[in-house]
Amino acid sequence: MDRTLAIIKPDAVERRLTGRILERIEAEGFQIRAMRMVRMTKREAEGFYAVHRDRPFFQSLTTFMSSGPTVVLVLEAPDAVRKWRELMGATNPAQAAEGTIRRTFATSVERNATHGSDGPETAAFELAYFFRGLELTGE
Ligand code: UDP
Ligand code: MG
């Protein structure tokens, strides 16, 4: 079994899409291992996205991610990292496959409804950013 970090971003929470996204996650076979609502500060969003600090979209992205509450989740499944990214679809919803979460719910490349870790090392960093070991021990 493999774990990944998912975030339902402020655009989707604001538009009351949380329930539909959670339903989709469970229907696709992920086990939700931990879940919490988090309103990130700008600094917390900057820390989370530190790998992107030199990208032109960094300021706008971290302002957006700290603009309202998010739902952070630990998802478990075989090959969870790849499987969750496949279910989300491409970063730009215009390029995301039909039926993916971003194609269905995103409104722009920035306001793209969900986040997913992009590899096992990133997943380890991102899980630890939001969840303590004790919250993750329920096997
Ligand atoms: N993003 C953006 N403009 C871009 C690329 C990315 O606003 O040109 C935002 C978008 O919200 C994306 C996040 O920055 O989800 C992180 O970018 P990344 O390339 O890691 O995409 P992801 O892994 O989320 O698909
Ligand atoms: Mg990424």
Structural description of this entry:
The protein is an alpha+beta fold. The chain has one domain (2-134): Nucleoside diphosphate kinase-like domain (Alpha-Beta Plaits), CATH 3.30.70.141. The protein is built from 7 helices and 4 strands; from the N terminus they run E-H-H-E-H-H-E-H-H-E-H. It has helices at 10-14, 18-27, 42-48, 58-65, 80-88, 101-105, 120-130; strands at residues 2-8, 31-38, 70-77, 114-116. It has a 4-stranded antiparallel sheet. Helix 3 crosses helix 4. The model has no long low-confidence stretch (mean pLDDT 96). Uridine-5'-diphosphate is lined by residues 57, 61, 91, 109-110, 112, 115, 118.
Summarize the structure.
This protein is an alpha+beta fold.
Rg is 14 Å
H/E element order: EHHEHHEHHEH
Instruction: Give a short account of the largest sheet.
Output: 4 strands, antiparallel
Alpha carbon gap, first and last residue = 10 Å
Q: What is the C-level CATH assignment?
A: Alpha Beta
Can you list the strand order of the major beta sheet? 2-3-1-4
* Poorly predicted runs of 5 or more residues: none
* Content-based structural category: alpha+beta
Whole-number mean pLDDT: 96
Return the CATH architecture. Answer: 2-Layer Sandwich
Q: Examine the coordinates and then state which fold CATH places here, giving the name of the CATH topology.
A: Alpha-Beta Plaits
What is the number of helices? 7
Query: What's the CATH superfamily, by name?
Result: Nucleoside diphosphate kinase-like domain
Helix content: 25-40%
Strand content: 15-25%
**Bound small molecules, deduplicated:** uridine-5'-diphosphate, magnesium ion
